Write a sequence for this structure.
């Protein structure tokens, strides 16, 4: 997503930081539901098992820290493998991200909405694969900000392997169903 567009008014940056915190908290909450017997289950993120998706999600905050510093993470490198304690491992990474954000006074090289989108999509992927916690426990504001960011930045030309073609949803679909459909999830 080169030439990234932010979707949040500069006056609401504090609100975006709060939504990022909520996105981090809910990702940790879903990761707390991972059990060893579910690790080989498939996920809506095609080609990834629960184990691979959990590893990717746990590494997301530290990849974002790299980007906040104006550097590019090595996206080809596999994230470190976590064998248990997925929620705790994620919380450590989330705390590092929040500490870095505080040190920078909120001034970062990339929009926070980018991380919210990453967290929202993969939290939905993982919750769907696990069947727990219920989708109703996911924060709709996280999905709304993620969807606005993705609509502004994700085009047919830059979807790559991570995102299928956008799918249609009923008009009354909730925020996460809309986000998942835009991300090409089934």
């Amino acid at each position: 997503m080169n030439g990234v567009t932010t979707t949040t008014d500069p006056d609401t940056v504090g609100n975006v930081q709060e939504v990022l915190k909520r996105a981090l908290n809910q990702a940790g909450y879903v990761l707390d539901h991972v059990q060893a017997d579910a690790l080989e289950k498939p996920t809506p993120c095609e080609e990834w098992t629960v184990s691979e998706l959990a590893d990717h999600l746990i590494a997301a905050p530290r990849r974002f820290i790299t980007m906040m510093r104006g550097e590019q993470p090595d996206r080809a490198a596999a994230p470190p493998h976590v064998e248990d304690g997925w929620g705790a491992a994620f919380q450590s990474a989330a705390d590092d991200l929040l500490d870095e954000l505080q040190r920078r006074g909120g001034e970062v090289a990339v929009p926070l909405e980018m991380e919210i989108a990453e967290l929202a999509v993969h939290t939905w992927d993982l919750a769907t694969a696990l069947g727990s916690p219920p989708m109703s426990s996911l924060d709709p504001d996280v999905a709304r900000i993620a969807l606005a960011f993705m609509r502004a930045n994700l085009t047919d030309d830059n979807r790559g392997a991570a995102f299928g073609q956008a799918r249609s949803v009923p008009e009354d679909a909730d925020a996460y169903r809309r986000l998942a459909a835009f991300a090409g999830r089934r």
